[in-house]
Amino acid sequence: MDSFDSLTESTFILKPSKRPNAKSSITENGGYAPLLQGKEPVECMELRRQLFEDTWPPLEKQLVEIEAQVNHIGVSEVCEFVQSSYKQAADCEKGRPAQPFAEIAAAVAFAGVNTGDHGKLFYTLQGQLKEQSHHVALLESQYCGSLTSLHKGILEQMFASFYSEHDDATKQNSFNGSKSVPYDLNLLRLWWEDAVARDTANASRKMVVILQDFEGFQPIVVDDFIRIVAGYCNVIPLVLVLGLATSYECIHQSLTKASISMLNIERFNLQRSKQCIDTAIHDLFVRGNNLLSFGAEAYKSLLDQFLLYNFSIAGFIKKLKYAAMDFFYAQPLSILAQMLSTEDGVLTVNERSIKLNPDHIELIRMQKSVQRFLEQKADKTGLDLRKALCSDEYFQNIVLLEMMRQLVAYRHGYNLGIAAVLEIQKYAPESLQKPIRTLHYYGLGQQFQDCTHWKTLLAVVRRMKTSEMEPLLKAICGLVDSSAGVNWKQLEDGENIPDMLHSAAQLLDNPDNIAKVTTPTSAEPSKRVRTRTDMEERPFLLFDSNTSDAQLQALERCCEAIETMLKLCLRSYHDVPLNEVFYYRHSFLLDATFSAQPRAAVQTALGRSHYYINCNCCSEAPQVPSGDVHDSDDEDHRVLPTMHDTSIAYRLHQECGRLINLYDWHSAFSSVIERDSSRVPPSQAEIQARFMRSVEEMRFLGFIKSTQRKTDHVVRLTWGM
Predict the structure, then answer these.
(1) 633-647 tens-digit pLDDT
(2) Where are the alpha helices (DSSP H) in 306-399?
(3) Residues ≥6 apart with Cβ < 8 Å to 559
(4) I need a surface site. Which of 40, 209, 210, 275 has the fewest CB within 10 A?
(5) CA angle at residue 251 from 145 to 214, to 5 degrees?
(6) What is the pTM of this model?
């Protein structure tokens, strides 16, 4: 333990010696190791690697396209503002005397708290503005600490964008990197006048300055810059784009009223993360065309990381990639993905047989969903259960293929069910309308009969009048007719769903067909007694007395048809065979990887340092007298002299209150060090030096801080753990 002087010092990696022509086993087969206790063939390892390489790049490309498509709306709005700036002011000023100063066109772009995605977003904005022949300078606060550096960044980027469009001879006369150049806006004015004199087409262009992270800039620098630009607006068509991550109030808190009065501000919302996530979830998970889907726990972890932390699209994509890597790297049954293919955007099952060894087949039989499937088939269709369990060939060619068909049919039916729910939500109050990310979580997390939201939507359907039910049922029937991928025969009791919906729609159009079947005995047409239940389920009966019994029965048939379809399509994925394979559920792995807890890790390392430095002397438990019970809590809180100095100081500080007396802390530390009988007793100077180093390390790690109230005390900052 003597070699570990400080827990906060750098760690040195000792590389193992390599043979001249030896290859690391990690790099072989792309890092894929044999599974099934090392019995997996090399061909299966190579197949898993190939499946990942074939699956993830198209998926990543689709996510990038979705993000670009969603962000294009906000970026286009900013580009239109830049294009139309100063034109309206010029039209208004015709025939009027010139003002002493002109307002600066400023676009305040709220990009959201996901600062990690701002670079890509504003880079896209810069590229689109350059496509419209504008001169653009994209600035970050870390490179613009002063007004001079801000001017320098603007001039260099403006000159670079201009001279890149001309020949090399003109580019050699640029001002980049010249220390003798006075970086001010007067030079920019001269350059702009020269550019307009050379080509009159430059007069229609704008000079756009984008401050990517406005909150990071020094307020006095931005304030002075705005005041200077206001004097050149009559000559230079300069447009400011201020990127915000917090709120619009930041501008009023950072800039003075005089500077704000010089800006012609228009607000834009570039934060489209939720729309992007909703589109991605619909295209990747709900439509069912992706090979890998997420279980309820893993999906909740994926969604919580996005909604509760940073709204980061990049973090969402990283989590998806990590889950795909873990699926193909650590799941031996991921080779079943080769049985699925996407044809014309529809997920289908390949009829060709795949090569599975007996270990793979036995592992498939061990899944609970497969066992439940075999028992149900044996009871309903008379499946030869003994043959399915003993014959690998029969299981692979018949049973496995049937389970894959049911899995694909469930995914298509689930997509249809969510689409029907979205149609129903159009007729529901706004408070009951949920985004598709929430609907997908309801569909994964609960059975249909246990979900409160599904029951609420069914209540909305029951309260509909005929004028509302007709377009809803027509839309649902259109969804059923257009869903060619749904195999109703593979769904349990699903063959009658299309006919049930169409017959309900016909009865709603001609309710007299029901009246002909059930003709009243009396001469007068009978009317149902309006009970309390009728009024609660259909409140329109209170003011609508023209609704006949035939129409009520037709509405009841429509409600039953819609409810039956939703119950079938929105059943839980736990009822589907092979859900353990194709529904990723390692939420703990995602949380441990992407939701790091550094405080808990540091406290655990200091409280149980022997696990980290592999020290046996610190882990030896004291002798417990016979008859006494050993308490694990006492083992966690005991202080041994063989422990690391920082661990000793940490455990001692846990026994203190909010204020820690340094003298008492040093006395306790000294008494623990002097108990070590296996070494030569250290001197008081050495003990004091070791104590000072431990205190400074704890201060560096954030456990304590100094206080002005008592100079010989420190304040404890952490509690618990």
Answers:
(1) 455 567 888 888 888
(2) 313-330, 358-365, 368-380, 385-390, 392-394
(3) 458, 461, 462
(4) 275
(5) 35
(6) 0.78
